[in-house]
Structure prediction request, 410 residues.
Amino acid sequence: MKYKLLVLDVDGTLLNDEKQITPHTLATLKKVQQMGIHIVLASGRSTHGVFPLAKELELEKYGGYVLSYNGGQIFSMETGGLLFEKRIDPVMFPYLYKKALKNDFPIFTYHKDRIITNRADNEHIRAEAALNNMQVVEVENFPEAITFAPCKCILVSDDEEKLVGLENHWKRRLNGTLDVFRSEDYFLEVVPEFINKANTLGVLIEKIGVTLEEVIAIGDGVCDISMIQMAGLGIAMGNAVLAVKRCTDYETASNNEDGVARAVEKHVIARITPANIPLDQLNARAKHALMGNLGIQYTYASEDRVEATMPVDVRTRQPFGILHGGAMLALAETVAGLGSMILCQPDEIIVGMQVSGNHVSSAYEGDTVRAVGTIIHKGRSSHVWNVDVFTSTDKLVSSIRVVNSVLKKK
Prediction:
């Protein structure tokens, strides 16, 4: 496959205006991960605020990543390990706080599951805490409360002119030490030097051995421009600001119209063919699922034929050493399931509907059986597969019929 990494901004991109991942987008992103593409959630949110979305997408199962704080941290969801981080030296906070007080700007930062601020009553700070599912802690002396090195710090004001004035001043004054930018009309963010989504994404792709040409990036805001321009394919949401749309290769629908799903279906799923399905990755990622627990391994896939093997051992045998019929049916459903996924259209999903088998002979412990699935009916609403299971000496063990229902994504 041409693309290996799908990088998604969160708010205004992955999430609709109700701050939800729609069922259509969720199904599409799970399917594309099953086909071997890794997902990166690249957000200005705290790591604590992105983790629930990563878990909803099952990134830990498919080897995805979280790039949080606009690039301040990278987490591997599969291992739970911190791959990269860069923080602000706490010695800078007396100066930052002094400027905030002079301009009457509330100031806050993040620490674990808390937001620490001098103004807990500010509506924008309360909204940020709710968005990240964090507790707001008000302190009297903000610099003294910062006994750790934060990933970023934010000043808040509804006076855009004053905020822009401080931004321009700090871009000169803090150059070479810290970077500043406005993530919202009312937020002025302070981050470590060189930290943005593109630079941190560059660190990630170097670590995992992916090239820029193998990356798709989708976003809607000014903070996404650098990573969109960097990617092999940059996509703007329909609701993106004009500056984003002008620097991208393609514009998709809005975040309220499943724009991410539509882009992925067009540029990724529609281009996947049986010849480039990464069977080794599918096998590796199924190790903790039923397929992996039974030792099932895909060995071949095409549009009309799928093959897989399964050992007859303590996991799949009956008490007397004969292959268990239930394990054999699970093998058949695994084969037919992948076959139907290959055949279905980008806007379709597959649901198993019926399986029935005729057991012809036995397979014994120590052998490895081979399942060969062939499509015998490809309809608009259903697929019917015949799956024959053979021993290592090509003796027929079972002939199984699997019916899968084809549903349109909602």
Q: What stands out?
A: The mean pLDDT is 94. The first helix runs from residue 23 to 34. The longest strand covers residues 396-408. The CA atoms of residues 349 and 407 lie 5 Å apart.
